[in-house]
Amino acid sequence: MSPLKLIVFDLDYTLWPFWVDTHVRGPFKIRNDQVVDGSGQKIKFYPEVPAILESLKSKGYILGIASRTEWPEGARKLLLLFGWSEYFTHQEIYPGRKTTNFKKIKDASGVQYSDMLFFDDEVRNITDLTAIGVKSILVRDGVNMKMVEEAIKSFK
């Protein structure tokens, strides 16, 4: 089996518990050290995400985002405000199929599909990516450290 080089995450219901294009609204800003939306609602993410990103980056994995949101600008702004943009070398965020996101990631990174790991909450995306050779993990209730560690172990 080939070595794991690149780990890609979906955003909505994978890194944070909402759809950015329907459940929150801009403008996003930081108030009292918290990210809030235009209505003043605190924007939350799944609790283990910062530690997961830090751990994966420190172990030398290339990280990417593949999101099919209808509001790419909002998603990018949240990544920036959460301080996560620095972790993701590849950010493919736009409506469409995940296979398009992954083709662009593959072309830009030079990493083959068989050397990628993907986390997403939608079965259709898992099915599409598994079909082209990306090891894909279905996420329920957001990613957590145990899930990521088990996926990496099962990759080897």
UniProtKB/TrEMBL annotation:
Gene Ontology molecular-function annotations: acid phosphatase activity
Known CDD domains for this protein? Answer: HAD_MDP-1_like
Q: Name one Pfam family in it.
A: Acid_PPase
Check the record and name the SUPFAM superfamilies matching this protein: HAD-like
NCBIfam families from the UniProt entry: HAD-SF-IIIC, MDP-1
Q: Report what the protein is called.
A: Magnesium-dependent phosphatase 1
- Source organism of the structure: Oedothorax gibbosus
